[in-house]
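Let us walk through a complete example step by step. Step one is to write down the protein sequence. Step two is to encode the small molecule, pyridoxal-5'-phosphate, as a SMILES string so that its atoms and bonds are unambiguous. Step three, shown after the inputs, is the structure prediction itself.
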Amino acid sequence: MSNNLQEADVQAADIDEYSQVHLNVFGTPLRVLDHGAGCHVWDVDGKEYLDFLAGIAVNSIGYAHPAWVKAVTEQAGKIAHTSNYFATEPQIHLAEKLITHAGAPQGSKVYFCNSGAEANEAAIKLAKLHGRTLRGALPSIGGKPARILALTNGFHGRTLGALSATWKPAIRKPFEPLVPEIEFVEAGSVDAMRAAFAQTGQGPYGKGPVAAVIMELIQGEAGVLPLDADYVAAVRALCTAHDAFMIIDEVQTGIGRTGSWFAFQREDLTHGIVPDAVSFAKGVAGGFPMGGLIVFGEKNASLFTPGSHGSTFAGNPLGASAGLATLGVIENEDLIANAEERGIQLRTALENCGNELFDTVRGRGLLNAVTLKRACAHAIVDWALAQGLIINAVRPDAIRLAPPLIVSAADIDAAVAILAKVPTDLPLD
Ligand SMILES: Cc1ncc(COP(=O)(O)O)c(C=O)c1O
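Step three: the predicted structure of the complex.
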């Protein structure tokens, strides 16, 4: 038996073993990965891949960046965890940096947690506290519970609160009833949003006031769908007029991914709105599980008081030092500009690569999708993997490309050279 075959057997055995001991929520793993460096990753058979998915928009500074490894290793040798009865310097400095990069006003504050869903749980609880302060929401004087508006096609996570604001019926419906007073409004329609606000009122048909609108600016899981900037600005105006919070979910778009620190800072996505709260996770700690919420302005930030929220690992020093190292690399290596430039290069190259299967290319910075003329996205993912390129199928008719922010011009050329050759007759999903 050749060495290669023995190694292939190792991978197959690993996958079999995985399936025996893991709940089947993710399906069968495509490969068993062993290690990475930069934009490249190797499986247990030693096969190398160019990673254009980055752990789904997480590994922003690539694999095993020396500055990240140094920071996490040193922190592990000092203090890896403490309860929230105590503070650590990494969490203080990370919060300061995030507030600065978000351009959030004086008095803005951060809550740290461990994932995107948890960040949105905090956002929903914040919205609930705000809702209780609104006129017409006080049950003691015949008021009605405040509502939270979420968008069709939106994705905010799979814990019960975040799932309540997540549109996709296939993943939400099996767990209903969920958090009440969260309503879906058609994404992109100002009329629908205006109508949802207008339902607030007294009498048997009037509903409670709107506490918040929660939305992504580029609907990532729905297929990397950017919202129209006019629409986003109109939602901001409605929120302001009705004293509702505008909560932007930047779990996928944040921390440089779209070519600015946060997508809400992109004129072409929002015309320059200021949100009331921004949730983040994924890329913030370069692969360490971490998320959080930036609450804008002193008044909004004072809604949470001791006991209103928390988590054992919130602001964990290992995660915070990973986050500080990640932000440091993004700053020092000018990765925001790189995300913008490489994103333009990627979209232009894909548009001109001549593959008849490709329909449109959309996205900002390094969060992009290619829509397909045939719904064969999963077959493309398998085919690309065999060629040594990692991407994912964000819909049956769209593939997503979200490489690390350190991606080079040569990496983009290499990925597009592979994608240009995707056969046009692959099996449908
Ligand atoms: C926009 C958005 N919000 C929330 C989440 C949930 O994040 P997590 O998987 O870390 O819980 C995701 C994950 O894909 C996301 O894309």
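Step four is interpretation. The chain has two domains: 31-61+334-420, 70-332.
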